[in-house]
Amino acid sequence: MGIKLIKIAVVYFLIGVSFGLYMSFTHVFKLATVHVHINLLGWMSLAVAGILYTLFPKLAEASSAKVHFWLHNIGLPVMMISIALAILEVSPIFFLIATIGGVATVIGIFCFGYNVLKNLGS
User: Fold this and answer.
1) CB-based contacts of 15: which residues, under 8 Å, 6+ apart?
2) What pTM value is reported for the model?
3) In sequence order, which residues have a C-beta less than 8 Å from that of residue 65 and are 6 or more positions away?
4) Could you give the percent of the chain with pLDDT greater than 90?
């Protein structure tokens, strides 16, 4: 699971950097929020989680790790796409969808935190 998360994190990194380059070229920074969240919650958070799951295999074996993996990897793209569509004023419904994706992501992150606090070093 750790290696999968690191690879997924790298994909988010490529997407986040591409967003940044696009904004730099066009001088249109409307999607800066999406850029920042992709880099922080996609690249950095998943990379750190992947490293911890790799260094401490007991963490990756916990059921909370599997819940974290799925909620983070379903919730984050839903949230990012929905925030972009809401900012671009496609439909106000995307604010609600973004919130649902965000809640799923946060629950996943809390599962990760619980897992680390409960199982690391024990």
Assistant:
1) 38, 42
2) 0.92
3) 1, 53, 59, 111, 112, 115
4) 98
